[in-house]
């Protein structure tokens, strides 16, 4: 694998991502779904090769995944906690009725930006940043939000704009 550049991609990407929100929104609204889905694997791979998630960890610092029932069962078993203990200690129900972490950064994020429950992490974490699946198109508001804190989403969106 090629040596990673700046751990979070291009310099100033956060500012550019904010400046390009309208472009991204317009693109996502009118995108040819089939064409985009064909482009995503290559763009996703290029972005993940370029960006070292362990240097960034913005997702774990600024975002909480949903903890679905299977996630809670799996994680509590691994941590040797009752499900109710896991929930009481780490989670709360948000306004959408989803369990999310009580604190930011995520309580399972280590000082080295590694996840202490990586092997049993929630499915939202496993799938994030959704740049290799149709969630990118199906949930445009989520994609726009993710582009502001995840350099991989930024890189993929910029790549899609470049290939119009």
Protein described:
The structure is a single chain. This protein has 164 residues and is mainly alpha-helical. The protein has two domains: 13-60 and 128-162, no CATH class; 66-126, no CATH class. It is 57% helix and 4% strand. The chain has eleven helices and two strands, in the order αααααααββαααα. The protein has helices at 13-19, 21-30, 33-50, 53-56, 58-62, 69-79, 83-90, 123-127, 135-138, 140-149, 151-162; strands at 91-93, 99-101. Strands 1-2 form a two-stranded antiparallel ribbon. A hairpin with a 5-residue loop joins strand 1 and strand 2. Helix 3 packs across helix 11 (151-162), helix 6 crosses helix 7 and helix 10 (140-149) packs across helix 11 (151-162). The protein is elongated, with a radius of gyration of 17 Å. It starts with 12 loop residues before the first helix and ends with a helix. The model is unreliable at 1-7 (pLDDT under 50).
Summed up, the domain count is 2
- Written as H for each helix and E for each strand, in order along the chain, the element string is HHHHHHHEEHHHH
> How large is the radius of gyration?
17 Å
- Helix fraction? 55-70%
Sketch the major β-sheet. Answer: 2 strands, antiparallel
| Strand order, sheet with most strands | 1-2
The span between the termini is 28 Å
Which geometry do the CA atoms define? elongated
- Pairing-aware structural class of the strands and helices? mainly alpha
| Beta-strand content estimate | under 5%
Whole-number average pLDDT? Answer: 93
The counted number of beta strands is 2
Number of helices: 11
- Spans where pLDDT lies below 50 across 5 or more residues: 1-7
């Amino acid at each position: 694998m090629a040596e990673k550049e700046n751990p979070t991609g291009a310099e100033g990407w956060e500012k550019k991502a904010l400046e390009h929100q309208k472009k991204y929104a317009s693109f996502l609204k009118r995108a040819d779904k089939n064409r985009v889905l064909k482009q995503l694997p290559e763009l996703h791979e290029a972005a993940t090769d370029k960006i070292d998630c362990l240097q960034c960890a913005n997702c774990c610092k600024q975002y909480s995944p949903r903890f679905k029932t299977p996630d809670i069962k799996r994680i509590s078993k691994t941590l040797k906690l009752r499900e109710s203990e896991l929930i009481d200690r780490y989670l709360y129900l948000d306004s959408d009725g989803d369990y999310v972490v009580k604190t930011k950064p995520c309580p399972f994020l280590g000082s080295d930006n590694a996840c202490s429950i990586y092997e049993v992490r929630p499915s939202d974490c496993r799938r994030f940043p959704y740049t290799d699946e149709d969630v990118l198109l199906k949930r445009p508001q989520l994609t726009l939000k993710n582009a502001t804190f995840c350099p991989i989403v930024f890189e993929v969106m910029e790549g899609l704009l470049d290939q119009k």
